[in-house]
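User: I'm curious whether this sequence folds into something compact or stays loose and floppy. Could you predict its structure so I can see for myself?
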Amino acid sequence: MENGTGHTDTQVTSKPSGHWASQWYSGKRVLVTGGTSGIGAGITQGFLEAGAEVIATGVSQAEIDKVGDALTPADRRVLNVRDGPAVEELVGELGVLDIVVNCAGIIRRIDEFEPSVFEDVIDTNLTGTMRVCTAARPLLARSQGSIVNLASMLSFFGGGLVPGYSASKGGIAQLTKSLAIAFAADSIRVNAIAPGWIETPLTAALRQDEGRSRAILERTPLRRWGTPHDLVGGVLFLGSPMAAFITGAILTIDGGYSVV
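Assistant: Here's the prediction. I'll summarize afterward.
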């Protein structure tokens, strides 16, 4: 299953969050990796609307430029999460950090059967998340902050065309649980969301394929595709004081797809 988290996405789909979360996030500093495209961009927008200061990263300047002014006033920076020293440098420059949301990821579909491509997907999606979490730990310990990772329905199901992506998302689920235990000593909570079928440019071909789209909708109890905005509430909740006793959880946001 593809949940639309690849670096090539540029669509920003979000609706105003209103002021319900501003009491939690006004003045807070949030890092969203992969935050200039697809799902990550929607989450960046949600935090901005909640009053947070957001640092949103993209894998290249070209990706960031495609967003234009849509994510103003986010601090948009180039970051390849496969580059350990670059991750350390960016996080080290922040000084203060309250929330990390790990959205950076790629998918290569059938090419993932090639071991080198499989390795690239794992290195980006799974090891990249680990790099960011480890680098951010000292700052989050000071703020008693939290991390929200991006899992997937493929954390639970197999994906016949995406073995690398599926393995990486299964790994995200276990990494989230493991870091929740390890980071608890620093009062850092670590959770994840698991999106279902989300409308992004990366899933455009599936939505345009009448047969595939119908099959997805028929299995989804809410009978529609999700949008990046549908994920915002879950992320804002998990990062907030309302979830102060929640860690190691994986919140499924899939319109009911996984319960059928």
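Summary: The longest helix spans residues 115-143. The chain has one domain: 22-253.
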